[in-house]
């Protein structure tokens, strides 16, 4: 599993040393969870998910760009308070729309776009067929888009 995780981490991270660090951290987390691993449907899917989240966290930690203006470090491209408020309102509207979806579509949409699971991971965790996951995901996205655009107009 280590080789697969390393390959997966390297797709996210440019630095091979960072990818190696992530894999070590994943293996350590799995070691600490070893007594509870039997509770998971797929330890492989779990380890890939942990790897993905750790990589995204690592990328997020380095994603902010800072520039120096008159000797003061300032984060560049900071949205205005008005833009931040609009974004927060839009997110709240989307969350309300998602809450109105049928349970299955709601669950799959949240797993994919909020929890960050890939289709194969959702299949492994739910036991559903990939076609059913894709169909429900497509219907959920379409409904959210239509209702959101209706609210915006």
Structure, described:
The protein is mainly alpha-helical and 153 residues long. It folds into 2 domains: 60 residues, no CATH class; 74 residues, Orthogonal Bundle (Arc Repressor Mutant, subunit A), CATH 1.10.10.10. The protein has 7 helices and 2 strands; from the N terminus they run H-H-H-E-E-H-H-H-H. The protein has a two-stranded antiparallel ribbon. A hairpin with a 2-residue loop joins strand 1 and strand 2. The radius of gyration is 19 Å and the shape is globular.
Helix content: over 70%
Low-confidence stretches: 63-67
Number of strands: 2
CATH level-4 homologous superfamily of the largest domain? Winged helix-like DNA-binding domain superfamily/Winged helix DNA-binding domain
Query: What would the principal axes of the Cα set say about the shape?
Result: globular
Separation of termini? 50 Å
Element string (H = helix, E = strand): HHHEEHHHH
Instruction: Output mean pLDDT.
Output: 83
Order of neighbouring strands in the sheet with most strands: 1-2
* Sheet with most strands: 2 strands, antiparallel
Tell me briefly what this model is:
With 153 residues, this protein is mainly alpha-helical. Helices cover 71% and strands 5% of the residues.
Q: What descriptors fit this protein?
A:
153 residues, mainly alpha, Arc Repressor Mutant, subunit A, 2 domains, two-stranded antiparallel ribbon, 7 helices, 5% strand
């Amino acid at each position: 599993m280590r080789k697969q995780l390393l390959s997966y981490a390297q797709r996210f991270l440019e630095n091979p040393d960072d990818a190696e660090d992530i894999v070590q951290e994943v293996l350590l987390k799995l070691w600490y969870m070893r007594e509870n691993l039997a509770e998971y449907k797929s330890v492989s899917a779990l380890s890939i998910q942990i790897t993905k989240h750790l990589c995204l966290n690592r990328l997020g930690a380095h994603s902010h760009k800072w520039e120096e203006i008159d000797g003061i470090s300032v984060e560049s491209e900071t949205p205005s308070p008005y833009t931040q408020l609009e974004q927060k309102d839009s997110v709240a509207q989307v969350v309300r729309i998602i809450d109105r979806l049928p349970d299955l579509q709601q669950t799959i949409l949240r797993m994919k776009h909020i929890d960050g699971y890939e289709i194969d991971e959702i299949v492994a965790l739910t036991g559903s067929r990939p076609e059913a996951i894709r169909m429900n995901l497509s219907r959920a996205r379409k409904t959210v888009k239509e209702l959101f655009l209706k609210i915006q107009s």
